[in-house]
Design goal:
heterodimer; A: 141 residues; Heat Shock Protein 90; five-stranded antiparallel beta sheet; globular; B: 445 residues; alpha/beta; 3-methyladenine DNA Glycosylase II, Chain A, domain 3; four-stranded parallel beta sheet; three-stranded parallel beta sheet; 16 helices
Chain lengths: 141, 445
């Protein structure tokens, strides 16, 4: 089993996407199926952008076992008051500046949920949000 | 006979890397790690004081090592004078880059005439074939709309980069034959027909700005065998051409290309030749890698065509050119203005050839993934964990003194039993300091 931690700083647009990039590198090195890597990237990139846009900071824990990739995004931030609303496609709390940068379609969380094999989310207002994702590793090429 | 400036008469000490277009001469190499650090795919290590391409399966023939070597120990394996002997008829297929090597006073036609003067029996304005290919690309894009962006395949280093490191993008490589191969096929038929010789008696040589073209001839992708017999470095022919240019008397018109084909030299032909499509030109190793990452992340779906060159500035920035690339770029710009952007290639002819699959690759491309960390995922995970452990011990300076380009690469080499942690100079200094502190405290007590 392999485990690694990463950090994301909220508001750090300059490095936004760098954690996803590092995760991709590891998955490629492990020769994991390209389709699984692609799904891992969708999940990781959306989650990372959510942290950069809305949270203060986040610890990302990547755990890879021979059958499964598990990623946890545990952030400190304002939290999500209504999770089922946040999971609705098209619902977004993006500010005008964020929309000007191309964000705010309201598809981030729904996409993560759709793309993962297992998905769970919990949040406390005023403290932060934790997202847990599982991806089955089907075959190694 | 064509004479080339080269190192004939010296035996090169090959280290490894048999199927690539560069070799490192261990007699000249000083082990300075410049190439090791410059290699974008980390294929080079310094062992026992000399550099070696130890990871041949990673090498993409980009020539960065050749570019940065301060003592010219990295040799391009392009064709030498002896490779041109034994042919009854010699044909030159110059890269359009050649047109920008001699300054503003010589036209492409002058340069084609000069090639005849230095001993080639026939020459071909490959820039015209470049225009044919651009049109064929347009045909392809019109008939095939599902995969976007399609990516150019004429830079062998880019093609190999994709086959090795971006296997998911192999289907994005446009399956059209490259101009030099089309030109070679046409010229061979023409020469055989007109001069009544056997095809094997015709020697067709590309005049190239880079070593990668050589590997596309000796180890081609997409075809079983190249139509070319070799590639001569521009710098190996430069002096001879320069003298010949001063003495041209003929006034045959050999140039047929327009600015569309000539702009191939700066990697921007698609911009002019494909006005109905959205195309993007990117050149230079790190920019190409960055854009390929974007394609892989499916963020460039709105772009129809990506024209990629591994060399900065396009082919005029190749490692084997003579002219300063900025001057060359400017000269190409002038040539484009002078010769316009209307090709004389008949689009209907291209359409017909396309329908007869004449211009398409003969074989499907398959990825050439380098050896993975381990073929067994459980073992690969264990190795990954050990790499992290070792990495935490290393100083993180990425200095290259151990012979590996980065600390992370050294950690991987250690786990694969190809290096040891004690190769790290900083760790050894730390060890020696600990030892001497121990010795001192022992002698004091």
């Amino acid at each position: 089993m392999f485990k690694k931690e990463f950090r994301i700083e909220g508001g750090d647009f300059q490095n936004a996407g760098s954690v996803s990039k590092q995760i991709k590198k590891i998955l490629k090195q492990l020769n994991i199926d390209a389709d699984v890597i692609w799904r891992a990237m969708i999940i990781s990139y959306e989650a990372e952008m959510n942290v950069v846009l809305y949270a203060y900071r986040c610890i990302v824990t990547l755990t890879i076992s021979p059958k499964c990739i598990h990623i946890t995004f545990k952030d400190q931030g304002p939290g999500i008051p209504d999770i089922s609303l946040a999971l609705t496609e098209g619902y977004s709390t993006a500010t005008r500046e964020m929309r000007e940068r191309g964000f705010g379609a309201g598809l981030g969380l729904p996409n993560i949920k759709k793309t993962a094999d297992e998905f769970s989310i919990e949040s406390t207002v005023g403290e932060g949000t934790t997202i847990d994702v599982d991806l089955q590793i089907s075959a190694v090429i | 006979m064509v004479s080339l400036a080269n190192n004939e008469g010296r035996t090169l000490q090959y280290t490894s890397n048999k199927s690539h277009s560069i070799r490192i001469d261990s007699e000249i190499c000083t082990g300075c790690v410049a190439c090791t650090l410059a290699c974008p795919v980390h294929a080079i290590r310094v062992r026992n004081g000399t550099a070696e391409v130890t990871k041949g399966d990673l090498c993409i023939d980009c020539g960065e090592c050749l570019r940065v070597c301060p003592v010219q120990a990295v040799k391009s394996m392009t064709s030498q004078g002896k490779d041109l002997t034994g042919y009854k008829v010699l044909v030159a297929l110059p890269s359009p880059t050649l047109y920008a090597q001699f300054g503003d006073i010589y036209t492409p036609n002058d340069i084609l005439l000069a090639l005849r003067k230095v001993g080639f029996d026939e020459v071909c304005d490959v820039a015209l074939n470049c225009e044919m290919v651009v049109m064929a690309i347009g045909e392809y894009l019109e008939r095939n709309t599902t995969i976007r962006p399609m990516i150019s395949n004429f830079c062998p280093a880019v093609t190999r980069l994709i086959l090795k490191n971006y296997p998911k993008l192999v289907d994005h490589l446009i399956p059209i034959e490259v101009p030099r191969e089309i030109a070679a096929d046409q010229m061979r038929r023409k020469v055989v027909r007109e001069r009544n010789v056997d095809p094997s008696e015709v020697g067709i040589f590309h005049i190239t700005p880079c070593p990668a073209k050589m590997i596309s001839i000796t180890d081609p992708v997409g075809v079983d065998k190249s139509n070319l017999d070799g590639a001569i470095a521009i710098r190996d022919l430069y002096v001879q051409l320069r003298s010949a240019l001063k003495e041209i008397e003929d006034d045959w018109i050999l140039q047929k290309s327009s600015g569309v084909g000539i702009s191939w030299a700066i990697g921007r032909s698609s911009v002019r030749g494909l006005p109905n499509y959205t195309s993007l030109s990117v050149n230079g190793v790190s920019d190409v890698i960055q854009i390929l990452d974007e394609v892989e992340a499916e963020r460039l779906g709105d772009v129809d065509f990506l024209e990629l060159s591994i060399c900065p500035g396009g082919c005029v920035g190749g490692p084997l050119v003579v002219q300063n690339k900025h001057l060359a770029m400017s000269h190409i710009g002038n040539l484009i203005e002078q010769y316009g952007v209307r090709s004389r290639v008949d689009p209907r002819r291209i359409q017909k050839q396309f329908e007869q699959t004449y211009l398409l690759n003969k074989e499907k491309l398959t990825s050439r993934r380098p050896a993975p960390l381990d073929t067994d995922l459980t073992r690969a995970l264990e190795k990954m964990a050990r790499i992290e452990e070792i990495l935490n011990q290393l100083p993180g300076k990425n200095c290259g003194a151990c012979g590996a380009p980065t600390c992370e690469v050294l950690a991987e080499d250690v786990v694969q039993d190809e290096a040891s942690v004690s190769d790290c100079v900083f760790l050894r200094i730390k060890e020696l300091e600990c030892e001497s502190t121990r010795d001192r405290s022992n002698s004091e007590s």
